[in-house]
């Protein structure tokens, strides 16, 4: 009978433990945003950002290499991947409670009785040897408490995977943004160098004219001020470029060589120029991992309500063992030495000073908080896309207008210099034209930078950055598969 006892107890335990959960039925809250984007979209078929991998979207080879290095070496992303593995292990720990733990044990006990206590009047030593196989304190999950806790752990684990995906998308966008900022500042630095050379040439010309009595001392001082201003801008931009490189190295996670810095200016696009489709706001909910992470948190909170409700009902735990016992080690496994024990335990909550009710209230409030956070995540996602679309609608006009402004100020400077050389105007008109051209050229760099950053921002806001084969995101994907 002993050899059939433990399998019978295990089978009965598993049959009784698979009951339904008391968690409320999960329903996704309605999205608290408009059904359409505030900026009208083109009727021309466009590509969805979620369908474009980052290797396809970013066309600059240097930027592609930097993104690959960042995905492999960035410490923040590494922490996000490790958090996934940690949550996966925690989920497995919680899921293990749904099955009995079977343990084997071998023991010996020895006791010496003095003659005064022995039935024979002589000192005696007694020994007992045991070998058992059993389960200890296995809870029959009749009301779904253990299952609810396991469901909550699963949602939390999947939420960390969504957080890793969100961290990856953000890292890709940050690397691209830092790369573009560095390219823009390098272009500003080259412009400052050219401007300084031009103003130093103008200063030398003004000095010769002043010595010849053609130009006044005021013209000389204004030319000196203009040259010193350009020198100050050059020093400031030199420091800014160095800081941009440091910021990019921090994102990439390792030192970079001079060959890895951008060489082209903001007029060379680093991403594809195909216009991305914004789709409907509901599409964002299916592609943005931060929104999915917020929903996982809500699902975990919903499952915790089931565990809190189950605490009001009786809890049954089983402890059972089967094996053999003998006073002699050689007789331990002989016929007739079989032994078994079965210890069911029922715990019925009667009075807990309102503890279970308070725990249920905490779980329900946590669920309400998770609902608000989920709705906030949707609203934030909606705003990110709406802001990027609003800028996209006008940024092309800004760039075109700034290009015309540069051309006009260049022509104005040419005319001012001609009039100065002919003695028709003083040096002030030329200096004003130089400052206007310098400001217009800087404005053009800023407009081009904003246009490229807008493409990256919209790509990220729409859930772009899908993992490409062989990149660092494979770690999270493998973890997801192994936990299922």
CATH superfamily: Outer membrane efflux proteins (OEP)
User: How many domains, in number, for the residues?
Assistant: 1
CATH architectural category: Up-down Bundle
Number of strands: 6
Oligomer: single chain
**Structural class per helix/strand content?**
alpha+beta
CATH fold topology = Outer membrane efflux proteins (OEP)
Percent of residues in β-strands: 5-15%
CATH class call:
Mainly Alpha
The helix tally amounts to 11
Span from first to last CA?
Answer: 38 Å
Mean pLDDT reading = 85
Element order: H for helix, E for strand: HEHHHEEHHEHHEEHHH
Shape: elongated
Gyration radius over CA: 37 Å
Strand order of the largest sheet: 2-3-5-6
Low-confidence stretches: 468-484
Topology (elements, then pairings):
Layout: H1 2-17, E1 47-48, H2 54-57, H3 61-73, H4 75-96, E2 102-113, E3 124-140, H5 145-211, H6 217-252, E4 276-277, H7 281-287, H8 289-310, E5 315-326, E6 338-347, H9 355-421, H10 427-461, H11 474-483
Parallel strand pairs: 1-4
Antiparallel strand pairs: 2-3, 3-5, 5-6
What would the keywords be for this entry?
two-stranded parallel sheet; about 475 residues; elongated
Q: Could you describe the 3D structure shown?
A:
With about 475 residues, this protein is an alpha+beta fold. It has one domain: Outer membrane efflux proteins (OEP) (Up-down Bundle). Helix content is about 60%, strand content about 10%. The chain has helices at about 1-15, 55, 60-75, 75-95, 145-210, 215-250, 280-285, 290-310, 355-420, 425-460, 475-484; strands at about 45-50, 100-115, 125-140, 275, 315-325, 340-345. The strands form 2 sheets. Strands 2-3-5-6 form a 4-stranded antiparallel β-sheet, covered by helices on one side. Strands 1-4 form a two-stranded parallel ribbon. Helix 4 (about 75-95) packs antiparallel against helix 5 (about 145-210) and helix 4 (about 75-95) runs parallel beside helix 11.
């Amino acid at each position: 009978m002993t050899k059939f006892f433990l399998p019978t107890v295990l089978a009965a335990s598993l049959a009784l433990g698979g009951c339904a959960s008391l968690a409320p039925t999960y329903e996704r809250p309605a999205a608290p945003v408009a059904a359409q984007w505030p900026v009208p979209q083109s009727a021309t078929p466009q590509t969805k950002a979620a369908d474009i991998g980052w290797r396809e979207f970013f066309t600059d080879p240097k930027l592609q290499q930097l993104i690959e290095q960042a995905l492999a070496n960035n410490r923040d992303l590494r922490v996000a991947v490790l958090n996934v593995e940690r949550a996966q292990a925690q989920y497995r720990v919680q899921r293990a409670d749904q099955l009995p733990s079977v343990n084997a044990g071998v023991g010996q006990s020895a006791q010496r009785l003095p003659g005064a206590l022995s039935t024979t009047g002589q000192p005696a030593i007694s020994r007992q040897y045991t070998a058992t196989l059993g389960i200890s304190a296995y809870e029959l999950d009749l009301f779904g408490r253990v299952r609810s806790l396991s469901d909550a752990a699963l949602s939390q684990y999947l939420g960390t995977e969504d957080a890793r995906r969100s961290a990856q998308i953000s890292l890709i966008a940050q690397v691209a943004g830092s790369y573009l900022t560095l390219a823009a500042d390098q272009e500003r630095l080259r412009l400052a160098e050219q401007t300084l050379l031009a103003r130093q040439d103008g200063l030398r010309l003004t000095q010769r004219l002043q010595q010849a009595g053609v130009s006044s001392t005021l013209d000389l001082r204004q030319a000196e001020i203009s040259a010193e201003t350009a020198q100050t801008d050059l020093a400031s931009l030199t420091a800014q470029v160095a800081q941009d490189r440091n910021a990019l190295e921090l994102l990439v996670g390792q030192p970079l060589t001079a060959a890895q810095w951008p060489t082209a200016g903001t007029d060379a696009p680093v991403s594809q120029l195909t216009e991305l489709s914004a789709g409907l706001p509901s599409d964002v909910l299916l592609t943005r991992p931060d929104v999915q992470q917020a929903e996982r948190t809500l699902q975990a909170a919903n499952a915790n309500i089931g565990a809190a409700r189950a605490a009001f009902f009786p809890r049954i735990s089983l402890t059972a063992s089967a094996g053999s016992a003998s006073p002699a080690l050689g007789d331990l496994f002989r016929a007739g030495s079989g032994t078994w024990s079965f210890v069911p335990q029922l715990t019925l909550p009667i009075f807990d000073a309102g503890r279970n009710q308070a725990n249920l209230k905490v779980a329900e409030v946590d669920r309400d908080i998770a609902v608000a956070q989920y709705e906030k995540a949707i609203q934030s996602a909606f705003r990110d896309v709406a802001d990027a679309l609003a800028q996209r609608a006008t940024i092309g006009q800004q760039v075109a207008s700034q290009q015309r402004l540069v051309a006009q100020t260049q022509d104005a400077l040419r005319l001012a210099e001609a009039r100065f050389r002919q003695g028709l105007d003083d040096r002030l008109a030329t200096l004003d034209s130089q400052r206007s051209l310098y400001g217009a050229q800087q404005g053009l760099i800023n407009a081009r930078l904003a246009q490229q950053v807008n493409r990256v921002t919209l790509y990220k806001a729409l859930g772009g950055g899908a993992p490409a084969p062989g990149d660092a995101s494979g770690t999270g994907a493998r973890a997801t598969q192994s936990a299922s």
